[in-house]
Write a structure and sequence with these properties.
Arc Repressor Mutant, subunit A, alpha+beta, Beta-Lactamase, binds zinc ion
Length: 303
């Protein structure tokens, strides 16, 4: 919005390039449209000869700190990827995809790249790591192929919960991809599970779909500064109630309706769902339209 015609957006250009290069690798590997993506084959077409366990990481790589647990690495000279296989299945696959992208993007070429929890699973500031995770998401979910499946179901947190296994991804990575790339207005807050004295849980980060960003801005600005309310009487009691039920695990997915003010000043209705996977509290905002809901309903209990 408000962009000058022909203005060059470098971030957008880079993202498109990463998707194109990753997509080309998927096609070359015969992995396009195959789920879960056969990452070994993608790693192979990225010119990497071998995937080894992290315990075999050669000693000529200088580790930055004894405290930093290295979970993945790409050694360019040896054309070898190292992955810590003691992680959960979804994390192993994410690490493989991340290292594959380091191998796919020609401007990442270097001596050795070491990855830890920060660069793989948190919001690293390092541009190269942000790019590797952006590409990893494309290798795991494959863009429109993910949405061809996801959009068959209702717009709900229940959809990533139900389909994450099919992509060999964690619920966390799937819910983020779903919210961040959804064609409609959708936003996701990732929150902690332990309430502070103030009666709020911390909000780690939020992700918004392009349409949400255009129409509403960033989700964080609509939520209390102190965090996601869990106790009543802090404002937004409906939100506090669903966060509380999700945290107490009395229901699988708790929901309520809220109105959110758009950038033009009008209030729009959202359905808000809270879900606790025992690591993070997910709070997903989906636009409530006047149209009847499309897509098959999902019963999490029976799936
Ligand atoms: Zn990395």
């Amino acid at each position: 919005m408000g962009k000058e015609p022909g203005a060059f957006d470098e971030a957008e250009f880079t993202q498109r390039r990463i998707v194109d290069l990753c997509e080309a690798a998927l096609v070359r590997a015969g992995a396009a449209g195959v789920f879960p993506t056969p990452l070994n084959e993608v790693i192979e077409v990225a010119g990497i000869d071998e995937i080894l366990d992290i315990s075999e990481l050669p000693t000529d790589i200088t580790k930055p700190s004894a405290l930093r647990r290295i979970l993945g690495a790409l050694h360019f000279r040896h054309r070898t990827v190292f992955v810590d296989r003691a992680q959960s299945g979804g994390r192993v696959r994410w690490t493989e995809a991340h290292e594959a992208v380091h191998g796919i993007l020609p401007w990442h070429e270097g001596q050795a790249l070491l990855d830890d929890d920060e660069t793989l699973f948190r919001s690293s500031e390092d541009q190269r790591e942000v790019e590797a995770n952006f590409g990893a998401a494309h290798l795991v979910f494959q863009g429109k192929r993910f949405f061809e499946q996801a959009l068959d179901f209702e717009h709900s947190i229940k959809t990533p919960i139900m389909i994450h296994d099919e992509f060999g991804a964690s619920i966390h990575a799937t819910a983020r991809y779903y919210a961040e790339r959804h064609p409609e207005s959708m936003a996701l807050a990732l929150c902690g599970r332990f309430p502070r004295q103030s009666g709020h849980v911390p909000i780690f980060t939020t992700f918004e779909s392009p349409s949400f960003k255009r129409q509403f801005g960033v989700l964080r600005q609509f939520l209390p500064e102190a965090g996601m309310p869990v106790n009543g009487g802090l404002g937004i009691d409906g939100l506090a109630a669903i966060a509380r039920s999700a945290l107490s695990m009395t229901v699988d997915v708790a929901h309520c309706e809220l109105k959110v003010r758009d950038l033009g000043g009008d209030f729009r209705r959202f359905r808000v769902e809270a879900f606790n996977n025992q690591h993070v509290l997910f709070v997903l905002f989906t636009r409530r339209s006047a149209m009847p809901r499309l897509g098959k309903k999902i019963d999490v209990m029976s799936s």
